[in-house]
Amino acid sequence: MKGPLFYAKILLFGEYGIIKDSKGLAIPYNSYNGAFKKAAVLEGKALKSNGYLIDYYNYLKNLKTDLVSFDLVQLEQDIANGMYFDSSIPQGYGVGSSGAIVAAIYEKYAADKITVLENLTKDKLLKLKAIFGLMESYFHGTSSGLDPLNSYLSLPILIQSKDNIESVGIPYQQNGKGAVFLLDSKMIGETQPMVNIFMEKMKNEGFRKMLSDEFVAHTDACVENFLHGDAKSLFGNVKKLSKVVLDNFKPMIPTKFHALWKKGIDSNDYYLKLCGSGGGGYILGFAPDFEKAKTSLIGHDLELVYRF
Asked: Which of 6, 8, 150, 163 is the right S-S partner for 100, CB 3.0 to 4.6 Å?
């Protein structure tokens, strides 16, 4: 048995902002993926994964919702027969490891599921997002449902607002100098503590004002620039966004990266931003000249995501 592949995702823009109705843009990241497999003898990672699936089955069994129902008998049987989720997606890295599991469970066990092949109206997308939010809240306490949605559809998703999402085409990659990349912090990040810090900060009026006047405004501009292929404006707005994040989201940036973050802004060699909730995992980078950024970030592991 081997199920279909479910890919990682990268939220290019919108981390934290989408909680306050900023725009957001999430893209599939095909370098990492996961799929269901079965083994007659479970050991190592497979055994661990199977144990996680038992816990998740118990969560789904007790989930009270009219939005979705599952073939729990089949799921329980498959787990008992050695099913596990074989995934290369790093956990705690902000690239949707739990989203891929949720998407895979929905695809295989949901009754009357909304499929990728049908006409995906806004209502259907919002229903899927709500279902996935419920399913993924097991992993994070609360979930927007965006990661599983991206993994399930394997399409770029544009978030216009909480109640307005659509699949969208993004400009074809160019073979230019500019790039989006991932920087490996070599640390595991945990979503829930970071979201808790953010919610605490939201009690402060000054922080709320900064969020709507600066953070959301720059995020929205970045989304528009990216979708229209306007790289020059994009780098200008990403620089502003990077500075706002450094000034106001310091707890979400691992301490040893504060100076590196500032170096990028001062030198214009690259601009860093949060990848997901932060606190570790990957940091997202934008570089007008990727070769120059690689030299500037020598000693750090970088992964190319998109070329301008």
From this structure: 6
Give the DSSP per-residue string, 3-47.
---EEEEEEEE-TTGGGGT--EEEEEEEEEEEEEEE-SS--HHHH
Confidence of residue 301 (pLDDT cuts 50, 70, 90): very high
**Helix, strand, or coil (residue 93):** coil
Q: Which residue has the higher pLDDT, 276 or 79?
A: 79
Mean pLDDT of 30-46: 95
pLDDT tens profile 219-252: 999 999 999 999 999 999 999 999 999 999 999 9
Instruction: State residue 172's pLDDT score.
Output: 83
Q: Which of 168, 128, 204, 177 is nearest to 13 (CA)?
A: 168
**Separation between Cα atoms, residue 277 and residue 289, nearest integer Å:** 26
**Residue 249 · residue 272 · CB < 8 Å:** no
Alpha helices in 83-121 (DSSP H): 97-109
pLDDT at 2: 66
Nearest Cα to 106, choosing from 193, 36, 179? Answer: 36
**Contact at 8 Å (CB) between 85 and 104?**
yes
Helices 97-109, 122-140: crossing angle, 10 deg rounding: 120
Contact 154, 8 (CB under 8 A): no
Given the structure tokens 């109640």, which residue do they identify? 163
Query: Does the pLDDT value for residue 140 go beyond 80?
Result: no
Q: Which residues, including other chains, have CB under 8 Å from residue 213's CB and lie 6 or more apart? A: none
CA-derived radius of gyration, the chain:
19
* Residues linked to residue 87 through DSSP beta bridges, in sequence order: 34
